[in-house]
Amino acid sequence: xxxxxxxxxxxxxxxxxxxxxxxxxxxxxxxxxxxxxxxxxxxxxxxxxxxxxxxxxxxxxxxxxxxxxxxxxxxxxxxxxxxxxxxxxxxxxxxxxxxxxxxxxxxxxxxxxxxxxxxxxxxxxxxxxxxxxxxxxxxxxxxxxxxxxxxxxxxxxxxxxxxxxxxxxxxxxxxxxxxxxxxxxxxxxxxxxxxxxxxxxxxxxxxxxxxxxxxxxxxxxxxxxxxxxxxxxxxxxxxxxxxxxxxxxxxxxxxxxxxxxxxxxxxxxxxxxxxxxxxxxxxxxxxxxxxxxxxxxxxxxxxxxxxxxxxxxxxxxxxxxxxxxxxxxxxxxxxxxxxxxxxxxxxxxxx
Length: 351
Prior knowledge:
Elements (H helix, E strand, L loop, with lengths): L9 H4 L16 E3 L4 E4 L2 H8 L4 E3 L13 H13 L3 H19 L8 E2 H18 L6 H16 L7 H11 L12 H23 L2 H9 L4 H12 L4 E6 L3 E3 L2 E3 L4 E5 H4 L34 H18 L2 E4 L5 E3 L4 E3 L3 E5 L1
Parallel strand pairs: 2-8
Antiparallel strand pairs: 1-2, 3-5, 4-12, 5-8, 6-7, 9-12, 10-11
Helix pairs in contact: 4-5, 4-12, 5-8, 6-7, 6-8, 8-10, 8-12, 10-12
Protein backbone atom coordinates (compact mmCIF):
# COMPACT_ATOMS: atom_id res chain seq x y z
CA UNK A 1 0.00 0.00 0.00
CA UNK A 2 1.55 3.35 -0.98
CA UNK A 3 2.24 5.80 1.81
CA UNK A 4 -0.19 8.35 0.37
CA UNK A 5 -3.15 6.01 0.92
CA UNK A 6 -5.25 6.82 3.96
CA UNK A 7 -4.69 4.33 6.81
CA UNK A 8 -7.51 3.35 9.18
CA UNK A 9 -6.72 4.24 12.77
CA UNK A 10 -7.22 0.62 13.82
CA UNK A 11 -4.19 -0.36 11.74
CA UNK A 12 -2.08 1.52 14.27
CA UNK A 13 -3.85 1.27 17.61
CA UNK A 14 -5.74 -2.01 17.14
CA UNK A 15 -6.45 -3.57 20.53
CA UNK A 16 -4.09 -1.25 22.46
CA UNK A 17 -6.97 0.40 24.30
CA UNK A 18 -6.54 1.77 27.82
CA UNK A 19 -9.24 -0.65 29.03
CA UNK A 20 -7.85 -3.69 27.21
CA UNK A 21 -6.80 -6.65 29.38
CA UNK A 22 -3.97 -7.28 26.90
CA UNK A 23 -1.10 -4.81 27.43
CA UNK A 24 0.92 -3.36 24.53
CA UNK A 25 4.06 -5.31 23.68
CA UNK A 26 7.50 -3.93 22.84
CA UNK A 27 9.08 -5.91 19.99
CA UNK A 28 12.04 -5.63 17.59
CA UNK A 29 11.72 -3.16 14.68
CA UNK A 30 9.94 -4.42 11.58
CA UNK A 31 8.73 -2.99 8.28
CA UNK A 32 4.96 -2.98 7.90
CA UNK A 33 3.90 -2.99 4.19
CA UNK A 34 0.35 -2.00 5.13
CA UNK A 35 1.60 1.19 6.75
CA UNK A 36 4.54 1.48 4.32
CA UNK A 37 6.64 2.31 7.36
CA UNK A 38 8.99 0.89 9.92
CA UNK A 39 7.41 0.25 13.30
CA UNK A 40 9.49 0.82 16.44
CA UNK A 41 8.13 -0.13 19.86
CA UNK A 42 11.14 -0.88 22.10
CA UNK A 43 12.18 1.88 24.48
CA UNK A 44 15.84 1.99 23.40
CA UNK A 45 14.92 2.05 19.70
CA UNK A 46 12.47 4.91 20.14
CA UNK A 47 14.84 6.99 22.27
CA UNK A 48 17.50 6.54 19.56
CA UNK A 49 15.01 7.56 16.88
CA UNK A 50 13.86 10.67 18.74
CA UNK A 51 17.45 11.78 19.17
CA UNK A 52 18.55 11.00 15.59
CA UNK A 53 19.18 14.25 13.65
CA UNK A 54 18.23 12.61 10.33
CA UNK A 55 14.72 11.70 11.48
CA UNK A 56 12.26 14.58 11.41
CA UNK A 57 8.62 14.90 12.48
CA UNK A 58 6.44 13.73 9.62
CA UNK A 59 2.86 14.11 8.57
CA UNK A 60 0.79 11.04 9.25
CA UNK A 61 -0.86 11.18 5.81
CA UNK A 62 1.84 12.45 3.42
CA UNK A 63 4.48 10.40 1.66
CA UNK A 64 7.08 13.14 1.78
CA UNK A 65 8.78 14.87 4.65
CA UNK A 66 7.46 18.31 5.53
CA UNK A 67 9.47 21.33 4.57
CA UNK A 68 12.20 21.54 7.17
CA UNK A 69 13.42 24.51 9.09
CA UNK A 70 17.11 24.71 9.78
CA UNK A 71 18.48 24.09 13.25
CA UNK A 72 18.83 27.79 13.96
CA UNK A 73 15.14 28.42 13.18
CA UNK A 74 14.04 25.48 15.30
CA UNK A 75 16.18 26.57 18.23
CA UNK A 76 14.84 30.10 17.94
CA UNK A 77 11.22 28.89 18.02
CA UNK A 78 11.87 26.64 21.02
CA UNK A 79 13.70 29.44 22.82
CA UNK A 80 10.75 31.78 22.23
CA UNK A 81 8.32 29.17 23.55
CA UNK A 82 10.45 28.52 26.62
CA UNK A 83 10.79 32.26 27.24
CA UNK A 84 7.00 32.41 27.32
CA UNK A 85 6.95 29.83 30.12
CA UNK A 86 9.32 31.24 32.76
CA UNK A 87 9.52 29.71 36.22
CA UNK A 88 7.92 32.82 37.73
CA UNK A 89 4.84 32.42 35.52
CA UNK A 90 4.60 28.72 36.28
CA UNK A 91 4.60 29.48 40.00
CA UNK A 92 1.88 32.12 39.59
CA UNK A 93 -0.29 29.85 37.41
CA UNK A 94 0.20 26.97 39.83
CA UNK A 95 -0.93 29.13 42.76
CA UNK A 96 -4.03 30.31 40.88
CA UNK A 97 -4.86 26.81 39.65
CA UNK A 98 -4.40 25.26 43.10
CA UNK A 99 -6.76 27.79 44.67
CA UNK A 100 -9.38 27.25 41.96
CA UNK A 101 -9.03 23.43 42.15
CA UNK A 102 -9.40 23.39 45.93
CA UNK A 103 -12.52 25.56 45.71
CA UNK A 104 -14.12 23.43 43.01
CA UNK A 105 -13.29 20.06 44.56
CA UNK A 106 -15.20 21.02 47.73
CA UNK A 107 -18.33 21.41 45.62
CA UNK A 108 -18.16 17.95 44.06
CA UNK A 109 -21.12 15.93 45.38
CA UNK A 110 -21.17 12.43 46.84
CA UNK A 111 -24.92 11.89 46.52
CA UNK A 112 -24.91 11.41 42.75
CA UNK A 113 -22.55 10.33 39.96
CA UNK A 114 -20.48 13.11 38.43
CA UNK A 115 -18.50 13.46 35.24
CA UNK A 116 -14.99 14.17 36.52
CA UNK A 117 -14.01 15.64 33.17
CA UNK A 118 -17.02 17.85 32.53
CA UNK A 119 -17.55 19.02 36.11
CA UNK A 120 -13.96 19.27 37.32
CA UNK A 121 -11.12 18.94 34.79
CA UNK A 122 -12.50 20.89 31.84
CA UNK A 123 -13.65 24.00 33.76
CA UNK A 124 -10.26 24.24 35.46
CA UNK A 125 -8.36 23.76 32.21
CA UNK A 126 -10.50 26.31 30.36
CA UNK A 127 -9.99 28.91 33.06
CA UNK A 128 -6.22 28.37 33.05
CA UNK A 129 -6.06 28.36 29.24
CA UNK A 130 -7.84 31.72 29.10
CA UNK A 131 -5.34 33.16 31.58
CA UNK A 132 -2.20 31.75 29.93
CA UNK A 133 -3.09 32.48 26.29
CA UNK A 134 -4.69 35.87 26.88
CA UNK A 135 -7.62 34.94 24.65
CA UNK A 136 -9.89 37.83 23.74
CA UNK A 137 -13.40 36.46 23.37
CA UNK A 138 -16.63 37.00 25.27
CA UNK A 139 -17.52 33.31 25.01
CA UNK A 140 -14.51 30.99 25.52
CA UNK A 141 -16.86 28.00 25.28
CA UNK A 142 -17.46 28.96 21.64
CA UNK A 143 -13.72 28.80 21.03
CA UNK A 144 -13.71 25.36 22.62
CA UNK A 145 -15.92 24.14 19.79
CA UNK A 146 -13.19 25.07 17.31
CA UNK A 147 -10.53 23.63 19.63
CA UNK A 148 -12.37 20.30 19.71
CA UNK A 149 -12.24 20.05 15.92
CA UNK A 150 -8.50 20.75 15.90
CA UNK A 151 -7.92 18.26 18.70
CA UNK A 152 -10.01 15.54 17.03
CA UNK A 153 -7.77 15.58 13.96
CA UNK A 154 -4.62 15.65 16.10
CA UNK A 155 -5.89 12.55 17.90
CA UNK A 156 -6.80 10.75 14.68
CA UNK A 157 -4.66 12.22 11.85
CA UNK A 158 -5.31 9.22 9.59
CA UNK A 159 -9.01 10.14 9.34
CA UNK A 160 -9.42 12.36 6.24
CA UNK A 161 -12.95 13.36 7.29
CA UNK A 162 -11.51 15.35 10.20
CA UNK A 163 -8.86 17.24 8.23
CA UNK A 164 -10.91 20.02 6.59
CA UNK A 165 -12.93 20.89 9.74
CA UNK A 166 -9.68 21.07 11.73
CA UNK A 167 -8.07 23.41 9.19
CA UNK A 168 -11.12 25.66 9.18
CA UNK A 169 -11.37 25.65 12.98
CA UNK A 170 -7.68 26.51 13.33
CA UNK A 171 -8.14 29.52 11.06
CA UNK A 172 -11.13 30.63 13.15
CA UNK A 173 -9.11 30.42 16.37
CA UNK A 174 -6.00 32.40 15.40
CA UNK A 175 -7.44 35.95 15.37
CA UNK A 176 -8.48 35.75 19.04
CA UNK A 177 -4.96 35.40 20.45
CA UNK A 178 -2.24 38.03 20.91
CA UNK A 179 1.06 37.73 19.02
CA UNK A 180 3.68 35.45 20.54
CA UNK A 181 4.91 31.86 20.62
CA UNK A 182 2.41 29.24 19.41
CA UNK A 183 2.70 27.56 22.82
CA UNK A 184 0.82 30.53 24.27
CA UNK A 185 -1.57 31.12 21.38
CA UNK A 186 -4.21 29.01 19.63
CA UNK A 187 -2.21 25.77 19.74
CA UNK A 188 -1.72 26.30 23.46
CA UNK A 189 -5.43 26.92 23.90
CA UNK A 190 -6.20 23.64 22.11
CA UNK A 191 -3.65 21.75 24.21
CA UNK A 192 -4.89 23.15 27.50
CA UNK A 193 -8.64 22.90 26.88
CA UNK A 194 -8.68 19.59 24.98
CA UNK A 195 -5.47 17.60 25.32
CA UNK A 196 -4.96 18.30 29.01
CA UNK A 197 -8.38 17.04 30.17
CA UNK A 198 -7.87 13.98 27.96
CA UNK A 199 -4.52 13.30 29.60
CA UNK A 200 -6.11 13.68 33.03
CA UNK A 201 -8.93 11.36 31.99
CA UNK A 202 -6.48 8.59 31.09
CA UNK A 203 -4.52 9.14 34.29
CA UNK A 204 -7.58 9.03 36.52
CA UNK A 205 -9.00 6.04 34.63
CA UNK A 206 -5.81 4.13 35.49
CA UNK A 207 -6.36 4.93 39.17
CA UNK A 208 -10.02 3.93 38.97
CA UNK A 209 -8.86 0.57 37.66
CA UNK A 210 -6.51 0.32 40.67
CA UNK A 211 -8.46 1.66 43.68
CA UNK A 212 -5.77 0.54 46.13
CA UNK A 213 -3.36 2.95 44.43
CA UNK A 214 -5.92 5.77 44.64
CA UNK A 215 -6.15 5.13 48.40
CA UNK A 216 -2.35 5.06 48.74
CA UNK A 217 -2.11 8.47 47.10
CA UNK A 218 -4.93 9.74 49.32
CA UNK A 219 -2.89 8.68 52.36
CA UNK A 220 0.45 9.87 50.92
CA UNK A 221 -0.13 13.07 48.92
CA UNK A 222 3.61 13.78 49.17
CA UNK A 223 4.06 11.11 46.49
CA UNK A 224 1.93 13.07 44.00
CA UNK A 225 4.59 14.34 41.60
CA UNK A 226 6.32 10.97 41.17
CA UNK A 227 2.96 9.20 41.04
CA UNK A 228 1.74 11.38 38.17
CA UNK A 229 4.87 10.46 36.19
CA UNK A 230 4.16 6.77 36.75
CA UNK A 231 0.49 7.16 35.82
CA UNK A 232 1.44 8.96 32.60
CA UNK A 233 3.74 6.06 31.76
CA UNK A 234 1.16 3.43 32.60
CA UNK A 235 -1.89 5.09 31.03
CA UNK A 236 -0.22 5.43 27.63
CA UNK A 237 -1.90 8.67 26.58
CA UNK A 238 0.46 9.40 23.66
CA UNK A 239 0.24 6.32 21.48
CA UNK A 240 2.35 7.02 18.41
CA UNK A 241 4.57 9.59 16.74
CA UNK A 242 5.69 9.58 13.12
CA UNK A 243 9.15 10.33 11.77
CA UNK A 244 10.69 10.40 8.29
CA UNK A 245 14.33 9.98 7.29
CA UNK A 246 15.87 12.91 5.41
CA UNK A 247 19.00 10.82 4.75
CA UNK A 248 20.09 7.21 5.02
CA UNK A 249 20.72 6.50 8.68
CA UNK A 250 21.05 3.76 11.28
CA UNK A 251 18.83 3.71 14.37
CA UNK A 252 20.04 1.44 17.14
CA UNK A 253 21.21 -1.10 14.58
CA UNK A 254 18.31 -0.78 12.12
CA UNK A 255 19.14 0.74 8.73
CA UNK A 256 16.61 3.31 7.55
CA UNK A 257 16.68 4.62 3.99
CA UNK A 258 16.03 8.21 3.02
CA UNK A 259 12.30 9.03 2.73
CA UNK A 260 11.24 5.98 4.73
CA UNK A 261 8.80 6.61 7.55
CA UNK A 262 8.92 5.25 11.09
CA UNK A 263 5.92 4.83 13.36
CA UNK A 264 7.06 5.13 16.98
CA UNK A 265 4.72 3.24 19.30
CA UNK A 266 5.32 5.15 22.52
CA UNK A 267 2.53 3.27 24.25
CA UNK A 268 4.53 0.03 23.90
CA UNK A 269 7.89 1.62 24.75
CA UNK A 270 6.45 2.84 28.05
CA UNK A 271 5.70 -0.81 28.88
CA UNK A 272 9.07 -2.21 27.74
CA UNK A 273 10.30 -4.72 30.36
CA UNK A 274 13.90 -3.98 29.34
CA UNK A 275 13.46 -0.45 30.73
CA UNK A 276 10.73 -0.84 33.36
CA UNK A 277 10.54 -3.68 35.86
CA UNK A 278 7.05 -5.18 36.07
CA UNK A 279 5.92 -2.69 33.41
CA UNK A 280 2.25 -3.68 33.54
CA UNK A 281 1.98 -2.81 37.22
CA UNK A 282 1.55 0.66 38.71
CA UNK A 283 4.43 1.51 41.03
CA UNK A 284 3.79 4.97 42.47
CA UNK A 285 7.38 5.21 43.71
CA UNK A 286 9.00 3.97 40.50
CA UNK A 287 12.44 5.36 39.70
CA UNK A 288 14.69 4.87 36.72
CA UNK A 289 13.92 5.44 33.04
CA UNK A 290 11.68 8.38 32.17
CA UNK A 291 8.45 7.78 30.28
CA UNK A 292 8.26 8.94 26.68
CA UNK A 293 4.79 10.48 26.69
CA UNK A 294 6.29 13.94 26.07
CA UNK A 295 9.02 12.62 23.77
CA UNK A 296 12.72 13.22 24.30
CA UNK A 297 15.58 14.87 22.44
CA UNK A 298 15.42 18.02 20.28
CA UNK A 299 11.71 17.68 19.48
CA UNK A 300 10.48 16.91 23.00
CA UNK A 301 7.34 18.77 24.09
CA UNK A 302 8.46 22.28 25.00
CA UNK A 303 5.50 22.70 27.37
CA UNK A 304 6.08 19.44 29.26
CA UNK A 305 6.86 21.29 32.50
CA UNK A 306 3.58 23.21 32.27
CA UNK A 307 1.56 20.06 31.56
CA UNK A 308 3.18 18.22 34.47
CA UNK A 309 2.40 21.11 36.79
CA UNK A 310 -1.24 21.14 35.70
CA UNK A 311 -1.65 17.38 36.10
CA UNK A 312 -0.25 17.44 39.64
CA UNK A 313 -2.06 20.60 40.72
CA UNK A 314 -5.51 19.47 39.52
CA UNK A 315 -5.11 15.86 40.70
CA UNK A 316 -3.81 16.64 44.20
CA UNK A 317 -7.01 18.18 45.69
CA UNK A 318 -9.18 15.46 44.13
CA UNK A 319 -7.11 12.61 45.53
CA UNK A 320 -6.64 14.33 48.88
CA UNK A 321 -10.34 15.09 49.32
CA UNK A 322 -11.66 11.67 48.30
CA UNK A 323 -10.38 8.34 49.58
CA UNK A 324 -11.67 6.36 46.65
CA UNK A 325 -13.90 6.46 43.59
CA UNK A 326 -15.77 3.99 41.42
CA UNK A 327 -16.85 4.13 37.81
CA UNK A 328 -20.58 4.83 37.56
CA UNK A 329 -20.85 4.18 33.81
CA UNK A 330 -18.88 2.33 31.17
CA UNK A 331 -16.24 4.49 29.52
CA UNK A 332 -16.72 5.52 25.90
CA UNK A 333 -13.44 6.34 24.15
CA UNK A 334 -12.66 9.07 21.64
CA UNK A 335 -9.60 9.68 19.48
CA UNK A 336 -7.52 7.43 17.30
CA UNK A 337 -3.95 6.59 16.40
CA UNK A 338 -2.24 9.45 18.26
CA UNK A 339 -4.23 9.27 21.46
CA UNK A 340 -7.39 7.80 22.95
CA UNK A 341 -9.18 9.29 25.94
CA UNK A 342 -12.51 9.00 27.74
CA UNK A 343 -15.33 11.16 26.39
CA UNK A 344 -16.69 11.30 29.93
CA UNK A 345 -15.60 9.87 33.25
CA UNK A 346 -18.72 9.24 35.33
CA UNK A 347 -17.83 8.24 38.87
CA UNK A 348 -19.07 7.96 42.44
CA UNK A 349 -16.74 9.77 44.84
CA UNK A 350 -16.27 8.72 48.47
CA UNK A 351 -14.61 10.69 51.26
